[in-house]
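Re: the request from the purification team.
They wanted to know what the chain is likely to look like in 3D before they choose a buffer screen. I agreed to run a prediction and write the result into the notebook, where they can find it.
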Amino acid sequence: MTIKVTPLTTHIGGRMTGIDVRRPLTPDEVKAVDAGMDTHAVLVLPGQDITDEQQLAFTRNFGPLEEGANSGARNSELRLPTVFADVSNLDKTGIMARDNKRRMAALGNRLWHSDASFRAVPAKYSILSGRIVVSEGGNTEFADMRAAYDALDTKTKGEIEDLVCEHSLIYSRGQLGFTEFLPDERVSMKPVRQRLVRTHPVTHAKSLFLAAHIGTIVGWPRPEAMAFIRDLMEHATQAEFVYVHHWTRNDLVMWDNRTTMHRVRRYDDLNTVRDLRRTTTKSDGPTAEQEAA
């Protein structure tokens, strides 16, 4: 089957057909997916009725796997292996209770963010499989950080070029009033440093590296830093830069965390099952030198 990509918006998103994730990809198919990601930043592959093993095999074509993405839960509590981020409202027994700790932490996914920006080596591609989707709400929105950067004025581009931000899950969850972290969790969530402006290794396009996980700008007073980051977030998530994905069962959606932000929209997660499973690959390395221990 011929591989075809149809743009979904002016700036971001493409619908890719001609790839069957159930079988091993050829080198040319891997190159086609990479090229589609370089151009569109988000790819939607419809009709991919896959198993966990097939999703993992597909993901490994694009780099080393990231593990441990399920914040707010111990490994013994997890429904899925640690190579998956469980983007569902389920635990081992069914729909999670309203006060479930993992549910509380997962509400942070409703904030604009980039996956794993709170790790020294942040995420490259995220690959999300829609196993059970809902008919109302639950859309995923993607914002193009390349277009957002390009639309900045020259003065602002110069001001932010060398800025470094600190990212942590503590910052993003704290925005929602979630502060119930155990001492060992707080150690593991120590802030990491990321450049505010990134350059894509293939296209050499510059983009903003924003996320709700940002808690300050290195060298700035925190209130000033957060006011500035808020302004940048508002700029970067204007409708003209955003693609809204309305889920259909067996959609496989992948995005480049180096050039996008995303968020999920609210749905009735106390009464309706939604089961999406995410695998993630790592970037090549840190974007900034880390603070000394």
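For the purification team: The mean pLDDT is 95.
Please add any questions underneath this entry.
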